[in-house]
Structure formats: structure tokens, C-alpha cells
Amino acid sequence: MKLKDVAARSSGPNKHTFEVEIKNLGIPLKNVQVALRGFYQGTITLLLEQLLFDEVVPPGGSLEKGMMAKFALRQIDFDKTRLACLAAFNQPETSNIDICVASNGSVVKFFRLDRRWESIRQKWNDFASRLNQKLSTVKYQKGKPYIKTNDWVPVFSDRHFQLKLFIQYVTTPLDDFPKPPMIQPQGILASAGAKLAPAPPVTPTP
After folding, report:
1. DSSP H helical segments within the chain, as ranges?
2. Contact indicator for 152, 131 with CB cutoff of 8 Å
3. Burial classification of residue 78, based on how many CB atoms lie within 10 Å of its CB (0-12 exposed, 13-18 middle, 19 or more buried)
4. Residue 103 half-sphere exposure, CB side, CA atoms within 13 Å?
5. Which of 117, 19, 111, 35 is nearest to 68 (CA)?
6. Phi, psi at 42, each rounded to 5°
7. pLDDT tens-digit map of 139-181
């Protein structure tokens, strides 16, 4: 079993997800379930839902060798009890946070969300992103310029940070988010003489 991807994603206000993608490298698995687990004054567990648009494996079907499936926590599914459980994962006292994969009720594999050296990894990733942006090049396709960014400097995979980001999205009221800043051109865009432009406003959905 391989953990392909862990990411916090957003498609708009109050439309946040914490997505986990797995790939089976062994024998076929029936009735696969994925859960987020941790220990905070007892074991806390949040079961992820298989995304309906994932057509690789039908819900309840068999995850054959080489197949992938995607599961997620969705903000729209959270009530007060699940929000309290989610917030507990962000407590400093919470330990042994992992993503647990089970088949037919038995644990197959778990992946630890390690938060050791998290601040150092984030500083390095910020540095690497800025450097990769500076190393971007302008290419032309059918006479139109576009910016090509090459990942010359590698970044660390930080699964625990993705969980923290999702918790922040879900537990922070929309009114408490800072106002959209002015977008400051950097790197190639700045050298090309791009002007400042206001970020698009965030409007709550009815």
C-alpha cells in the first residue's frame, strides 16, 4: 500500500476538503476504508468518505493491485461533534496522528503524519518555492508568452501541514479571514512591468 497524495483543497468558501489518495501494491482488498486517527484524552477517529467522482474503484468494490482510490473529509459533512473531533487533532497534546487504511474491518496499513521538524520543513519549502519562481523562464506557444516553472529545488512532503491547513479552513469563521491583499508581482512578472491588481473578493455562498 502506498500513500500517493495528501492535500487540503478548496473550491470556494465553505467548500474545503482534506483528500487522501492511496494505491494498492499488493493483494486485492475488499471494502476499503480510510480514517484519520489520533490520541487526545483517548483515541479519536474520523472516517473519510470515498469521493463519488473517483471512478477507479466503485464504493464497496475491490481495490485490485495497481489501482488507486481517493478519500476525503468534506467540510459540508461536519456537524458540531465532528468539528470538535477535528479541532482535537490540532492540539499540541495530540499524539500518534496517522492515516489508517483498513480492509473488511482489519487494519492493512497506517501512515504517520509526522510533525517533527515541521517549522524547518516549511521554511525550506518557502525558500525552495521562491527560488524556483526566480528560476522560471518565459516560453512562447503560438506566439503567446507563458511562464514555465521548473522544480530545480526539491521540496519536502509535509502531510501534517496539509491537515493543519484543512483544520484552519474549517474552524476559522469566514469573517475572521484577512481581507484580500494586493497582489505584488514578483520574479519574471515584475521584470515584465506587470502592474498591481487587487485580489478577487471572497464572497460567502448563500
Report:
1. 80-88, 118-134, 159-171, 187-191
2. yes
3. middle
4. 14
5. 19
6. 125, 170
7. 777 777 777 777 777 776 678 888 888 988 888 764 444 444 4
On whether the CB atoms of residues 74 and 49 are closer than 8 A, the answer is yes
pLDDT the model gives residue 101? 92
Architecture of domain 2-112: Sandwich (2.60)
C-alpha dist (Å) from residue 61 to 30, 57, 117: 6, 6, 38
- Mean pLDDT is lowest, of 5-9, 100-104, 119-123, 157-161, for 119-123
| 55 to 15, 52, 59, 95: CA distances (angstroms) | 21, 7, 9, 34
- Cell 517549522, residue located: 119
- Whole-prediction pTM: 0.65
Coil, strand or helix at 102: strand
Q: For 45-57, what is the mean pLDDT?
A: 73
The gap from C-alpha 12 to its chain's centroid, in whole angstroms, comes to 15
Residue 114: the pLDDT is 75
Q: Where are the domains of the chain?
A: 2-112
